Amino acid sequence: MFKWKTDEFSWVDFTIDVLRVLIVLGVVIGAWNTLSSGRISLAQWVNLFAAGLSQGSIYALIALGYTLVYGILLMINFAHGEVFMAGAFTTVFFAEALNRTGFLNEQPLLSILLMIIFAGLVSMTVAILLERVAYRPLRGSPRLVPLITAIGASFFLQYTFRGLYGSGFKAYPQVQILQGVISVGGINIPIVQIFVFCSALVLMLGLYWLVERTRIGKAMRAVSENKEVARLMGIDIDWVIMFTFGVGGFLAGSAGVINGMFRPQGVNFFMGFIPGIKAFTAAVLGGIGNIPGAMLGGLFLGVIEAIGPNLVLAGLGIPGANQLKDVIAFTMLVLVLIFRPQGILGERLAEKKA
Amino acid sequence: MDLLRSQTAKTILLLGSLSGAFILFTGAVGMIAAFHEREVVDRFISLGQLLLIIAPFVTGYYAAGKLRALGEDSPVLLIGGITIGIMTAAPSVILLLFNSDEFRFLLDLTLRLIPFAAASIFAWRLHRAGSETQMAIAVWLVVAVLVGIVTFSFALIFEIKGDLRSVLVNINREWVDVVTFDNRKDLARGIGAFSLISVVAGFAGSILYLMPNLPRRALIYGLGVTVLVGAFGETVRLILQENIDRDTLKEIFRRDTLRQNAALALFIISTVAGFLWAMFGRQARESFHSINVSQRRSLNIIGLVIFVVFMLALPWLIGRTLSDVAVTIGIFVLMGLGLNIAIGLAGLLDLGYVTNYAVGAYILAVLTSIGPLGLFKGTFTFWMVIPLALLAAMFAGFIFAVPVLRMRGDYLAIATLGFGEIIGKLAISDWLKPLIGGAQGVQAIPKPILLGAELKNPEQLYYIVLVASLVCLFVSIRLNNSRTGRQWMAIREDEDVATAMGIDTARAKLLAFTLSAATGGVAGAIFAAKVGTVFPNSFTVFISINVLSLIIVGGIASNPGIVVGAIVLIGMPELLREFSEFRFLLYGALLILMMIKRPQGLIPSKIVTHEVRTGVKPKLAGAE
After folding, report:
1. Are residues B488 and B366 located together in one domain of the fold?
2. Shortest CA distance to B231 belongs to which of B532, B578, B597, B523?
């Protein structure tokens, strides 16, 4: 871990090691203070953990899109957060319409399923268009070029949807059966959190099946392994890349609906930016290009984000710790990039490229 | 069928649908209606209507060139122009019909037919490609159900909501007014007018292409100048107001718009001037090139003197409002030059540049403020704090640079973006509120005082920005040509090779980050002094994107490019206020477009151009 054993002294390594010690100290002291003060009961910790898991499963769904694209094209699709926003923002209108007809509460599961498909297909369309218009002409150019394009696409999409649907916040209607809590051994867990976690799990299993068990999944794996050879084997690379973007988009769109159930407020044109960066963090955390890694990374990030401020920051005596949730997530991002760019499940790929 | 498959038809159809999509898109995001507020020529044409005309006109012209290159005759070119006119109007006309009361059923019908059409196309193509019948039927079913879910949902949304407008907020009355050329009541007439104008514009575009060279160039020049002066009427009036008397001004402008007579006169004058330039321009250029070296040098010196005098006199020529814009542009030029040290010279894509800007601004605010948050209540002046802001920003740049020294390319970009977001969240948090005021920020920052006079007007602040920019320009030119600059260039090209050549990459990269941060800090301090208050909301990721865009658009590593980029990207939204709402839409589109079509920027640096031209394109990324 520490590089003292190497012969040559490098002050960059030294600084990074000091940083490492400082962070470990901060986390330990903060956690010790909080735990010894006993301000937060066990039930509250469990609640925080459950909320973190649900938020994390949303991150995981978005992160899968980053990871799929990175696995195949080795590019960061920075505009993926906006793909998520496109589905979530468009589906608000559908959810409202369903609610107005009363169908939403008569057939809640069926309507949510319809909403997920609707949002997924909308996001899929956006993702495929994005690939076709912005990324395909740049395939094979230096690595920063598609990144800058992606940043441009991100802002272009944000402001397009702002122009289409307006700049105000919209809210998803409440679904009756998702309200309320389930009590397990004196701990109350909101039903909606269980719903979010389960539906994300189903989608992820679906993706796993698609990638591991189907013909097109095999083609995707082949292309991510080696494009030239895949082409020689008769795989249509353009189609596989488009399909990959489409699948990533579908997952992001469905994450948009699930997010809408979980946090009904706050759907607007800027909603995809921060979750986008966080999902990227999750993807890197799990080892970018690695599908189970993205799932784990998402859940891990969600939990850290929920528990971190209360455990560490509050313990260090920082007021308004929950405001700094995003700071925890972004610090995680930077720390992972510094200390373990290959992620938890460590693909060598990331280390070689980054 | 064969006709449709020909290259000619493909070109026309592609360009026509692009132009149609452009008009539909600008309408749907509200650009056309917003631009309608600005009249280009008084009681004659607005900027929104101009957009409707320019799209088919330019596309018609461009298509004519493409068709000529395919070897087509003049009649085909004209037919192409007309087709493009029709195709430009068509999507918006369909949307108009969907939006009207009488033809709403069409929307419903279309949405219900789309899934069957889409499924049939898919299945047909599979069938043609030789798939089995069962497969084609299965695909038909899947596509029909999936697309059906989307379009039937949309049908439900529009049925429940009652109209398009409650979903697409900008398909509203103003939009209908503009595209029907004020015939909202009589839709048939409106659609007729819109289509006719569009067709005429497309036709005119192809006619313009067929004209002989001289009148064509003269006309393009005349039209361009008139449209520009008309669109930026307010700016032109503000400039003229400083320099000519009120009565003459009233003859030319009615409030901020060009009068019809003035526009006509301007068009004639500029066309004639364009004609003369087209006839004698080449001779003039040739005679300039043929003069001997000493004469040319003295001409250059004269040019430089004129330029310097112009830059010094600028605030007095353009008045207060425009000076304010000039200061804003100057601050962004400064930041552009600074960020260019990292991005352009050393190739480090830093997306957290706003950090340095914020550090500079907050340092100045906290040290000089006479409000409750000021630490020294006026003991420190602007001039004492500027070096401190510079040092603080350098320090911040250094601190943030050390951990990311080992990262490359896209990871570096995302990590710096993360830093920018962290700083933004910290600035707004309760934790640092006692120090920097949370969301309320720091108020009451005094203006700089020079020789006993308070520099409170933008005209005076302009000189501070000018001096700072010139210093930064000088430093970055000298750096670029120094040993360090060469090291940066080596790192930009290939870091591994640079290390192998014995370059201390860590040191060189740190230097690039710190110097680039220093400039950002100064820009932030000047910004704080200009505005007088510092809010966290002024320091979002948008600043970083703004600066990045102006560097990319102007030209990476090109100093003149950065100035031009700042004038276009920062100045235009400030001068054309209708535009400011869409600035990030434009930035996004420009970033994509520049990367695809012209990665070296508008005014490219020589080295980058060389790299782009001769650079051996790698094969598919990751194929190695």
Report:
1. yes
2. B578
d(CA B461, CA B450): 11
Say if the Cβ atoms of A277 and B421 lie within 8 Å.
Answer: yes
Instruction: Report if residue B215 sits inside a domain.
Output: no
Cβ within 8 Å, pair A152-B30: no
Of the residues A126, A156, A280, the best mutation for testing chain B's interface (the one with the most B CB atoms within 10 Å of its CB) is: A156
Residue B139 and residue B115 in contact, taking contact as beta carbons nearer than 8 Å: no
Q: What are the DSSP calls for B291-343, one per residue?
A: S-HHHHHHHHHHHHHHHHHHHHHHHHHHHHHHHHHHHHHHHHHHHHHHHHIII
Write the pLDDT tens digit of every residue in B107-134. Answer: 888 888 998 998 998 888 888 887 788 8
Contact B410 A117 (CB under 8 A): no
Answer yes or no: do B201 and B229 share one domain.
Answer: no
Contact B119, B54 (CB under 8 A): no
Residues 9-48 of B with CB under 8 A from A: 25, 28-31
Which segments of chain A have a pLDDT < 70?
1-9, 346-354
Angle formed by the axes of helices B483-493 and B458-480, to 10°?
80
List CB contacts (< 8 A) between A116 and chain B. none
Residues of chain B with pLDDT under 70: 1-2, 374, 378, 607-624
**What does the pLDDT look like over B477-486, one tens digit per residue?**
888 888 888 8
Q: Are B482 and B345 in contact (CB under 8 A)?
A: no
Residues of A in contact with B621 (CB under 8 A): 73-75, 139-140, 143
Structural domain containing residue B84: 2-107+167-210
B75 touches chain A (CB under 8 A): no
Euclidean distance between CA atoms A80 and B423, whole angstroms: 23
E strands within B441-512?
A: 449-450, 453-454
For residue A139, give Cα distances in angstroms to A127, A146, A311, B281.
16, 8, 45, 42
Q: How far apart are CA B179 and CA B174, in angstroms?
A: 9
B512 CA: distance to closest CA in chain A (Å) = 16
Contacts with A3 from chain B: Cβ below 8 Å: none
Residue of chain A minimizing CA distance to B541: A273
Instruction: Check the CA dihedral A41-A45-A46-A48 and report its sign.
Output: positive
Residue A61 has which token pair? 């769904």
pLDDT at site B137: 87
Residue B364 inside a domain? The answer is yes
Q: Where are the alpha helices (DSSP H) in A102-236?
A: 103-106, 108-130, 144-165, 191-213, 215-225, 227-232
**In chain B, whose CA is at the least distance from the CA of A99?**
B160
B156 in a domain, yes or no? no
Question: Sign of the C-alpha dihedral, residues A212, A215, A218, A219?
Answer: negative
User: Which of these, A94, A263, A114, A53, lies nearest to A174 by C-alpha position?
Assistant: A263
Q: Which residue of A has its CA nearest to B162?
A: A97
Tens-place pLDDT, residues B459-505: 788 888 888 899 988 988 888 888 888 888 888 888 888 888 888 88
CA distance B599 to chain A (A): 8
| Residues of chain A contacting residue B404, judged by C-beta atoms under 8 Å apart | 334, 337-338
**Other residues' Cβ atoms within 10 Å of the Cβ of residue B184:** 16
Arithmetic mean of pLDDT over chain B? 84
* Chain position carrying tokens 């939204």: B573
For residues B199 and B233, state if they share a domain.
no
B463 lies in the same domain as B544: yes
Predicted TM-score (pTM) of the model is: 0.90
Q: For chain A, how big is the Rg over CA atoms in Å? A: 21
Largest CA distance in chain A: 73
Assess whether B261 and B349 both reside in one domain. Answer: no
